[in-house]
Amino acid sequence: MPKEGPRSKEHRSADSKKLRILSYLYSHSEGANPNTINGLPGLNSQRWDIIIEILNDLVSAGSVVKESHDEIRKGAVIYKITLKGRQTVDRLKELHSAGLGEGFDLFRSFETD
Fold first, then answer.
1. Domain of 35?
2. Of the four listed, 33, 44, 54, 84, which is most buried by Cβ atoms within 10 Å?
């Protein structure tokens, strides 16, 4: 049985993990490798197969693109947010600004006054 507590409850669902990844990639336009993504708060205790499955879902949805970087290292990949992914984050930021959903705390750092 998994441990209970703030860390285990905060990012349980696949959707919240996807939001965590999208919010990170939104602010890091250069992209990130799977290792960096796996180290994000709320994701660092996940199994690799779960992270890769979530990344593949985001790629299939068109929110993220997977780029090969064999010139750096054979098999190296970088995930970058697409226009569709940026639009998704922008919409969620608007909802958060309107006071909807405490679950959108991920986007608080993107608010501009």
1. 13-107
2. 54
